[in-house]
Amino acid sequence: MTASEVVHLVATCVTGAVLVMSAVTKLVRRREWVQQATTFGAPALVVPLVPYVELAVGALVATQLADPWPSWVAVALLAAFTAAIVTNLARGRHPPCACFGSLTPGPISWLDVARNTLLITIALTAALTA
């Protein structure tokens, strides 16, 4: 295996695992997550779909099926989530994160933006090294 292949494997595994874990934590405590997402300001039509989209994209990224497209979708998804966090923070709002369901019940902060920026970088690495 070349260094580039190792980097790609690590990036796809991390990105896929993060998205799958995020989806599972939302589905396990669905009622709580829906309430947190609503408080966060997520559109009502989108809320029920988010865990399933995360699960599908995460599985596709981790298994490297249709590479690199699922990684690009992961980048877009994470960028959208980050934009929503930044929008809330810019408005002075600090609702519960709900990013990882019940694992992150605390209020959003710039640390969430930093975490997501790192995750975007990893997903981007997965896309660019395919």
What does the model show?
The protein has 130 residues and is mostly helical. The chain has one domain (3-128). The chain is built from five helices and no strands. It has helices spanning 3-28, 30-40, 50-63, 69-90, 110-128. Helix 1 crosses helix 5, helix 3 packs across helix 4 and helix 4 runs antiparallel to helix 5 (110-128).
Give a brief rundown of this model:
With about 130 residues, the chain is an all-alpha fold. It contains five helices and no strands.
Secondary-structure map:
Elements: H1 3-28, H2 30-40, H3 50-63, H4 69-90, H5 110-128
Helix pairs in contact: 1-2, 1-3, 1-5, 3-4, 4-5
The largest pleated sheet is described as:
none
Order of helices and strands: HHHHH
- What's the tally of helices? 5
Percent in strands: under 5%
Rg over CA atoms, rounded to whole Å, is 15 Å
Q: State the shape.
A: globular
Overall domain count: 1
Low-confidence stretches: none
Question: What descriptive keywords fit this protein?
Answer:
mainly alpha; 130 residues; 71% helix
